[in-house]
User: Fold these one by one.
Assistant:
Number 1:
Amino acid sequence: MEKLFRTSPDLKVIYVLVRPKQGQTLQQRVFQILDSKLFEKVKEVCPNVHEKIRAISADLNQNDFAISKEDMQELLSHTNIVFHCAATVRFDDHLRHAVQLNVTATQQLLLMASQMPKLEAFIHISTAFSNCNLKHIDEVVYPCPVEPKKIIDSMEWLDDAIIDEITPKLIGDRPNTYTYTKALGEVVVQQEGGNLNIAIIRPSIVGATWQEPFPGWVDNLNGPSGLIIAAGKGFLRSIRATPMAVADLIPADTVVNLTLAVGWYTAVHRPKSTLVYHCTSGNLNPCNWGKMGLQVLATFEKIPFERAFRRPNADFTTNNITTHYWNAVSHRAPAIIYDFYLRLTGRKPRMTKLMNRLLRTLSMVEYFINRSWEWSTYNTEMLMSALSPEDQRVFNFDVRQLNWLEYIENYVLGVKKYLLKEDMAGIPEAKQHLKRLRNIHYLFNTALFLIAWRLLIARSQVARNVWFFIVSFCYKFLSYFRASSTLNA
Ligand SMILES: CCCCCCCCCCCCCCCCCCCCCCCC(=O)SCCNC(=O)CCNC(=O)[C@H](O)C(C)(C)COP(=O)(O)OP(=O)(O)OC[C@H]1O[C@@H](n2cnc3c(N)ncnc32)[C@H](O)[C@@H]1OP(=O)(O)O
Ligand SMILES: NC(=O)C1=CN([C@@H]2O[C@H](COP(=O)(O)OP(=O)(O)OC[C@H]3O[C@@H](n4cnc5c(N)ncnc54)[C@H](OP(=O)(O)O)[C@@H]3O)[C@@H](O)[C@H]2O)C=CC1
């Protein structure tokens, strides 16, 4: 919406389907977004932006999205272009819910779109990982072994227990219900698009903005953002990842630019078949998890997060044994010790729960950070060459120009500012806090070493001999040093 208003101030209206949430009405939710820093530039070119957004109450879990008759009438008669982004993106969602959101709702939206007389294009947002069971992925819709229609029907009469049982068989070699249902959603789009003018966009891992409206903007914990927080606050100490695997991140503004360009191309050129566009970075400008991780850590040195639990010092592990070892030593043990301290001081323990949640998240993303994929980008490159030089500049989605180190630094800064809502003025105090944590760390390790050594000396003659040898060696060395300095004087 931000980019559309900024580049097309003459635009009449954008209808957004929204559900009320957390005690906020639709209008409040939309106005909260419009009043955020993200929309500051828009307001300069389009001061009446509030009047150009029509929030329509809709819930994708309901029949006809529970849209009122009047709203439906207005939507059907006025819409020129549909951008379908809503989805459940939870990796662990129950199959019934994931099918409802990512498949059935897509089918219903297509039905609605077929009744829109002024519709020029229908743009469906999928994910580059919808076919992550393949290594090389082309810009085509791949068939699914079981027809989406059969899956939709079966969800109506199967009970939860049976669905739980068949889920692993249905998702096959995909890692979760999210990627599986996004793949089904694509097949539905292709099979039930009828005469509509449709395109599918497949972004990889969406990160903070690169340039627009300003670098580093991010507003959710999806993808790496949540884990950057966990690392910066010192909770995340080790992560099972392959440093050389490609980190196929794509900035949010790049996805937006490509989406708008696809909207234009689909409406104006009306391709005969449904085109799929990969919005990925790996084949044009690859970055790997090792490089990304190091830059994230380097940025924490310059711009630390406030009130960290421990000093940020995460590392990659590459096998099961080391992963279990570091999970026990660096994740679970400090959480148990801290909770013990909280209990002793009369407070409610919370660290073990938080750590368990983090470990669960890590286990879910492991699949994606230990493999590399190749996505072909012929359609995306074709689109780039179809744009005028001016549009190539305004709707830039050429990731070859992206400087990863600069991007990652801005990403971490954006996480601090826009997700954690921390003030830059707090950086000196955050650095002091990290120094205190470092001193506590040294003190703790020294105390631990001395206790262990004392116990060893009490129990072992060999340890006592070694200790005697070290002490007498130090004494002799000091005596020699003192004698030689007296002679020199
Ligand atoms: C050599 C040096 C090495 C140095 C290492 C340095 C490390 C630096 C960090 C870099 C890490 C890089 C890791 C990259 C990870 C990449 C992920 C790749 C994913 C690719 C997928 C494909 C992309 C897509 O197509 S779509 C979008 C992907 N979807 C998601 O990302 C959603 C994932 N989330 C979930 O599925 C769930 O939230 C789940 C299962 C993780 C957690 O579920 P749970 O029920 O436990 O919690 P919630 O109810 O969801 O939330 C509770 C609570 O937690 C907050 N939260 C939610 N998500 C996250 C998160 N990802 N991280 C942290 N916290 C999260 C949420 O806001 C809630 O907070 P409340 O305060 O309780 O409200
Ligand atoms: N993040 C990523 O890395 C990637 C995302 N994608 C795709 O991009 C799209 C957006 O994802 P992302 O922004 O990350 O995820 P979000 O969860 O932030 O966005 C999903 C949107 O869908 C809406 N939604 C979910 N359920 C319903 C419902 N029952 N009724 C109405 N609206 C609903 C949500 O509304 P509400 O705000 O009310 O919850 C939310 O605005 C998805 O299609 C996803 O598959 C693709 C590749 C990568």
Number 2:
Amino acid sequence: MRQYLDLCQRIVDEGVWVENRRTGKRCLTVINADLTYNVADNEFPIITTRKSYWKAAIAEFLGYIRGYDNAADFRKLGAKTWDANANENQAWLNNPARKGTDDMGRVYGVQGRAWRKPNGETVDQLRKIVDDLSRGIDDRGEILTFLNPGEFDLGCLRPCMYNHTFSLLGDTLYLTSYQRSCDVPLGLNFNQIQVFTFLALMAQITGKKPGQAYHKIVNAHIYEDQLELMRDVQLKRQPFPSPKLEINPDIKTLKDLETWVTMDDFKVVGYECHEPIKYPFSV
Ligand SMILES: Nc1nc(=O)c2c([nH]1)NC[C@@H]1CN(c3ccc(C(=O)N[C@@H](CCC(=O)O)C(=O)O)cc3)CN21
Ligand SMILES: O=c1ccn([C@H]2C[C@H](O)[C@@H](COP(=O)(O)O)O2)c(=O)[nH]1
């Protein structure tokens, strides 16, 4: 939690105003942030200086694992987070590739589970990683990448957290995740939880011990209409100790994640937090 607040404070103190054409809003911006999550000791990196809707964050990531391309499927799991990008962004609404209401196009999990090859076949990146790690193999290229520049125009948004690389040292599993663009008040609240939970889940289904998760962010920003709430409300609060994440131990395979897992299979124990803060969202 401290590292999150330090990043927010750094943006407030040292950030530079940058115009953003896509949203039409200015962002107070810093370049480069490195966050580390201790998954080995289950220090769940949830925000405590406001209420965090952590189930929606995990639901969103489970949707990526399943390769969903439709905001309605995300809603069924418990995340409304893709409604606006799928249905309210004019550039995407005008795009002939959009297949109708709720379609997100070839984003995130679609690339992760069905990257298109020139011969028409697809590559399931996640399956390969799970198979390798389960057999104790780290070929130094256990990479799940959602960033496919050749298909940017076929999706509603370029992936923000676009690369997850797994590493094995003995029987301990590590994760390094890269993010090109980060909405710190809204997105990072979710992304921290997602990086942590992804490592915990992958360790569980491959029979490894979870180690540390390393989260590397390039452009970290606060939108102009979020600044006051961050500076004058959230940053004035004192954080509570971090709670624990409990994952149903019956989740043992990638197939389990793809088929029956719901948000009831996740619990956060000992979560103490301040009042909710509703930050504006930019489409
Ligand atoms: N501008 C922007 N910021 C983002 O963080 C973001 C995007 N766009 N587009 C794609 C995804 C969608 N994500 C989102 C979208 C909405 C919330 C959000 O509104 N969160 C609220 C309430 C969540 C709820 O009620 O379930 C929050 O207070 O955290 C968070 C992340 C993260 N991403
Ligand atoms: O997981 C996510 C997804 C999105 N974001 C934020 C970062 C930016 O504020 C917008 C994306 O806008 P771009 O113009 O494509 O950079 O969404 C996030 O923080 N986390």
